[in-house]
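Box S1 | Example of a co-folding query
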Amino acid sequence: MATDPRGLITEPAVRVRDLRRSFSESGGVLNGLDLDIAAGEFVALIGRSGTGKSTLLRALAGLDRDVAGSGRIAVPAKVSVVFQDSRLLPWRRILDNVVLGLRDPGAAARGQQALSEVGLQGRERSWPFQLSGGEQQRAALARSLVREPQLLLADEPFGALDALTRIRMHALLRKLCEAHRPAVLLVTHDVDEAIVLADRVIVLDAGVVRADVQVAGRSPEELRTFLLEELGVTR
Amino acid sequence: MTITETRPRAVAPDIRVVRRRLGPGRRIPYAFWAGPVLLLAVWSAGSATGLISPAILTAPWDVVVAFGEQWTDHDLLGNILSSLQRAALGLSFGVAAGGVLAVVSGLSRLGESIIDGPIQIKRSVPTLALIPLFIAWFGIGQEMKIVTIALISMVPIYVHTHNGLRGIDGRYAELAETIGIGRREFVRHIVLPGALPGFLLGMRFAVTSSLLGLVVVEQYNATAGIGHMITLAEQYGQTDVIVVGLVIYGVFGYCADSAVRLIGRKVLAWRRTLED
Ligand SMILES: Nc1ncnc2c1ncn2[C@@H]1O[C@H](COP(=O)(O)OP(=O)(O)OP(=O)(O)O)[C@@H](O)[C@H]1O
Ligand SMILES: [Mg+2]
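Box S1 (continued) | Returned holo structure for magnesium ion
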C-alpha cells in the first residue's frame, strides 16, 4: 500500500486487480495484472513491443469496451489521456483544440496559459497541420493539463520528438506534474526516460508486472542495468 | 592553407531542389470562366459559319435578342424570380431535412434502421415518377412543386452527409470520450465539422437536382417561371425562347455550383488537399 511523505497509509488513486484482456487474434494480452498508483505518483511503464502496455492504458482510460476480459479497475473521476499521435482535431484551431469541451468562463485564459507553459504562445490561431510534429504533441499535452486531471495516462507521448525537444519536454512534464500533482502512468520504450521522469518504474512482460522498482535511493546506472536485464537485454 | 578556403564556394543564390509536381498544381486566375467562354466561342463560331443551322440551335445573338424581347414584353425578370424562389424554397427544405436525417441516422443505430431503408427505397423510385401522386395529394399549386424539389434535393444531401459522417476517423470519437464531452458537443465539435466535406459535395448535387426538379414541376399549371416560359414557347414553336430558358437554367446551375465550391474552399481552410 502506498504511503504519503508523512508515512500515513493513503488510498491509491489507481487500483487494478486481476486484470485480464484478450483478443481473438492474439490470445491473452493481460493475464491477471495487479497495479496500484498513489495520488501524485509518477509511474513509468516499460516493456517489449506487444506486451500489452497500450492495452493496459486503454483499459484504464475506459476505451476498451469491445475487448474481452475481466478484473477490477478503480480510477479517479478526472482522467486525461495523451495519445501517441497528438489527435488534434484538424478542423479546430490550436486554442480551440486545447479547450475543447471546457465551458467555464476562464477556459480560454487557462488554455492560453497552458499553451505558453508548453512553449506555444502565439500559435493559438494556427491550424494543427501548420504545427510541427513536436509542436502538435506539446499542444496535446497542453490539452491534457488544462483539464487538471487526477490521473494522466500517456502512451509514448514523446516517441516522435528529437532528443533535444525530448529533454525539454521531460523538464516541462516534471515541472507541470509537480505543480498539478496528478498521478501519472507513462508508457515509454526508453529506459533512461523512465528513470529520469518517474518515481517508480514497472516492467510489463507477458501481461503481468514482472518488476516494480522505486527510483529514489538507487543510482541511475544500477537501475538502468537492472531494468535492461528485466527487459531481456543481456550485456 | 587557411580555414576559409575549405568552406564551400558561394554559388548563385536561391537554388533549390524541386520535385516534379503530381497534383494539379496552382490555381489559375479566372480559370473559372475559361470553360464556359470556350463553349460560347464554339457555339458562336458554329452559328456564324452556318455549321449549326438556326433550326437546330439558335445563334447566340438571336438568343440575346429573344432575351431582350422576353425581358421587356413578357416579364422575364418575374419568371426568373419566381423560378429562383421555388428552387430556393424547395432546396432549403430538402437540405435541412437531408442534413438532419443524415446526422440522426449516422449517430444512432435505431435511427439508421428506421431512416436509411426508406431513403434508399426513395432513391430507387425516380421523384419525377411520383409527381402524379403528389398532384393527387397537394394539388397542382406551389406546394406540390416545392415538395417535389425538396425531395429531389434531399437525397444527395442525405447520402453524402451520411457517408462523410461515417467516414470520420474513429480516433476523434475516442478522444471525445476521454475528455468527457456530451453528445451535443460531440456533434458540434466532431460530427458536424467532420461531415462538412461530405455535406458540401451533397450540396453540389442537390443544387443541380433542384434545378432539374424545377424544369419538370414548372410544366404543370404554372403561371410564371422559366419552365412555364419554355412550355409556352414550345407550343408556339419559338426555339429561340426555349434556348433563352435553357441558358438561364445553365447560368443558375453554374453559378450555384461555383458558389458552393467557393464556400467549400473557405470553410475547409483546415484541410490541405490537391484542391489548394
Ligand atoms: N484491436 C486489437 N485487435 C487484435 N489484437 C490487438 C488489438 N490491439 C492490440 N492487439 C494485440 O495485443 C497485443 C498487445 O498490444 P499492445 O498495443 O497493448 O502492445 P504494446 O505493449 O503497447 O506494444 P508497443 O510497445 O509496440 O506499442 C499485441 O500482440 C497486439 O497485436
Ligand atoms: Mg503501444
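The longest helix of chain A spans residues 163-180. DSSP finds seven helices and nine strands in chain A.
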